[in-house]
Amino acid sequence: MSGEGEPRDPGAGPESRRVRSDRLLAVLEPFERVVVVSHVNPDPDSLASMLGIRALVESRLPGKPVTLTVDGMIARAENRAMVELIPVPLTPVGSVAFDREAAVVMVDTQPRTGRRSSESAAPHVVIDHHDTGGDLEGVLFQDVRTNMGASSTIITGYLLEQEVMVPPSLATALLYGIESETTGYPREACSLDDGATVWLFPRADKDLLARIRNPKLPQNYFATFHRSLGNASLYRDLIVSWCGEVAQPDIVAEVADFFVRFDQVNWVLCAGLFGGGLRLSLRSHELGWEAGEVLREVVGDMGNAGGHDKRAGGLVALPSPTEAEAEKALTLIRRRLLARLEIDERRGRRLLPDVPRIDTP
Questions:
Q1: What is the C-alpha separation between 104 and 71, in angstroms, rounded?
Q2: From start to end of the chain, where are the E strands?
Q3: Residue 245: other Cβ atoms inside 10 A
Q4: What is the largest CA-CA distance in the chain?
Q5: Rounded Cα gap, residues 242 and 73, in angstroms
Q6: Which of 7, 105, 201, 286 is the right S-S partner for 195, CB 3.0 to 4.6 Å?
Q7: Is residue 116 within 8 Å of 109, Cβ to Cβ?
Q8: Domains (ranges, CATH) in the chain?
Q9: What is the torsional sign of CA 179, 51, 291, 212?
Q10: For position 310, what pLDDT does the model report?
Q11: In this structure, are residues 102 and 30 in contact, taking their beta carbons and an 8 Å threshold?
Q12: What is the pLDDT of residue 134?
């Protein structure tokens, strides 16, 4: 398939790349079935990666059932559209039997990193691109490439080297999975992500892709943005925004992505109350600023955090699921972040002083 724009691994020839996917299939072959898991509230990259694993197993290990699972909820409008339109068949992870006959494949996350709420079974396979390292002891097959912009790129490579037919729906899913992880500036991507995109684009369903990119939005989406604007403060080049209680957790990250485009800002921290915990999203404007490490340091023993160079997320469990408790925790995290970035808290001011603060969702 050379000459078709397939992604290639720098420093590795075609044969060494083929060995990687062969090793994966060899690990899965003795099991009667395959269960694919990802992080809580899966995003397009994890959803597409799960679909790609299913296609790989069904093509090269025919007759072996593959179950794709969901832990948490499909929250963001684009993600729901992807699941409904592709479609992506998902089974709640809590209803899946993890026994000796099941090979557990974990994609787009790693064990015990705080990114997956249900870890009743240790994975046999881990495929990921995140910097947040997990406990990989005992994992039979590990493919963690932090230079990649998306796990979907890794999965696309497997499909190419195994010469698996990629139908338009799967190409669309993988393309959107890569796109969702590598948009923004500066891009967190490498030549392999670009190669996968070039190969997938002509094979994708462009109308389907457009429908996924542009879903209808509920009223609470706009209410959350309204509240976040009214409760945003600017500290030198950092915005800290309180979204209040949110209807779904992913919107905290969407608000952070919105604020990081402000021309006076290099850092954004957004927080919202969801499911009894404080959800956090941190954004940095430049590569090399290690947002994941910064948020992990700032959160400390209050909860879990991690992510990419420019994007990070975290969760702080609260003694009681009230906005007062959430704002108390956010105050402490904000002060830690200001100290980490060497910003004087006294320099803070409301971003939009003429907009009244909004104290109700």
A1: 14
A2: 33-37, 66-70, 91-92, 102-107, 125-128, 141-144, 232-235, 238-245, 267-274, 277-284, 303-307, 311-317, 349-350
A3: 15
A4: 65
A5: 22
A6: 7
A7: yes
A8: 14-213 (3.90.1640.10), 220-350 (3.10.310.40)
A9: positive
A10: 87
A11: no
A12: 79
Residue 5, Ramachandran bin (φ over 0: left; ψ between -120 and 50: alpha; else beta): left
Determine the length of the chain: 361
Band of residue 286 on the pLDDT scale cut at 50, 70, 90: confident
Phi, psi (5° rounding) for residue 234? Answer: -110, 120
Taking the C-alpha atoms of residue 119 and residue 65, their distance in angstroms, rounded to an integer, is 21
The answer to whether 173 and 81 have CB atoms below 8 angstroms apart is no
The confidence band for 295, taking pLDDT boundaries of 50, 70 and 90, is very high
The two tokens of residue 240 are: 């800290």
Q: What is the pLDDT of residue 354?
A: 75
Pair of tokens at residue 100: 């000796």
pLDDT, residue 17, reads 44
Cα 91 to Cα 67, 74, 108, 264, 269: the distances in Å are 7, 12, 17, 44, 33
- 282, 310 contact by CB (below 8 A): no
- pLDDT per position as a tens digit, 239-284: 999 999 999 999 999 999 999 999 999 999 999 999 889 999 999 9
d(CA 344, CA 263): 20
Is residue 118 very low, low, confident or very high in pLDDT (cuts 50, 70, 90)?
low
Summarised one tens digit per residue, pLDDT across range 55-69 is: 999 999 999 999 999
Structural contact between residues 148 and 193, judged by C-beta atoms closer than 8 angstroms: yes
